[in-house]
């Protein structure tokens, strides 16, 4: 039976935002984009690249139950279901706060941040916990000043597990969003030189660590922090946690980590990890001895960095009292989202069985995630004897890493020294910053350099042979996703063969 309970009534939205509805209405969802709006949604007319008020009429024509606006757009019917507020973004934030406030006392809110792996870890948490209670999680990378309020505002009152992602581009962005989310558990994946352009003048990596640690500002009383143990800036994170008086669980390979990776085996299609963890309540004498227990878990995708994030998810599961068996089992089925390291097999010729592998990691890039992606490519085995060249190759297509600040040229050139490149036959470079890498590469690994992704996408048929495996990696703004699209169009993804990586 379909649940017809409204997400919000107009009266509830009025009470939360201080706005005034022209007439009563109920909404089943919330949308900020007419392209994805569903009948029954509340359309929120945010101002960004375009003013959302320009699309109110279209939203109502598509079946929006109402529209939140700061002024009445022209050419609307006199009885249009508008809810007028002084400021639309402030009203959405207030509605998000109301969404958080109406959760039951036994509900649990988890917030994730980090320089690398936020979205993948958020999706791991979703996969691991969705069978353990009514779960609501952020869509895509909705982690900024409108994404977090939107996620909270979309959250049904019956939610028992909420998983939020909190990001930043500049100092001072995380703490307000954390205070809005009021998580019971905050998880920091890692701290790396991402968005250095905004932090170089105020302390660089240490400043980024302090900004990430600001997620602890919003923790509920008796909140829990899950923190990486292996970083140069780990003492900054633990110091903030100590001053905040929160319970801290450390994960990683460091000997002092509460959840310690002992061994990680990466194959072409999976990651198998062993770890040591604290004993569960009542299990002090069980497996692992009196001081803890041994964990064995498997991910159906290769990547050592995924093992570390999965271990953080296991720590969160224990801390929140979730079923460890269900967590491990469901975590094993997780696959990364598109553009975040998802692996696909593209069929070129169904008769001959000719195909190549594609790793789509085109959404984001910084030095840490670039290194992890190259490690992943090195762990994947090409297929020999089926292509024109008869020897399958590992090929990297790398786009600019943006917002790295004054050291960006050196950071791009340094990729040439990464050990995994010894397993890569050819590197194609996209963007003005990647010219530094192209110049630093050995001549036998130096592929094309182009300034625009469109130029390399046009060369797609010449970039790949059957048996190859290609990594496409770069910051979203350099648009190497166009190369991914062009490579996909050379064939078709093989049914049942799209793999998470």
Topology readout:
Layout: E1 8-9, H1 10-17, E2 20-21, E3 26-27, E4 29-31, E5 41-44, H2 56-61, E6 66-69, E7 82-84, H3 88-101, E8 108-113, H4 118-129, E9 135-137, H5 147-153, E10 161-165, H6 174-181, E11 185-188, H7 196-199, H8 205-213, E12 224-228, H9 234-244, E13 247-252, E14 259-266, E15 271-277, E16 293-299, H10 304-319, H11 324-331, E17 342-349, E18 354-361, H12 367-379, E19 394-399, H13 408-413, E20 426-430, H14 435-440, E21 446-450, H15 453-457, H16 460-463, E22 469-473, H17 481-488, E23 492-493
Parallel strand pairs: 4-5, 5-6, 6-7, 8-10, 8-11, 9-10, 11-12, 12-13, 13-14, 18-22, 19-20, 19-22, 20-21
Antiparallel strand pairs: 1-3, 2-7, 14-15, 15-16, 17-18, 17-23
Helix pairs in contact: 3-5, 4-10, 4-11, 8-9, 10-11
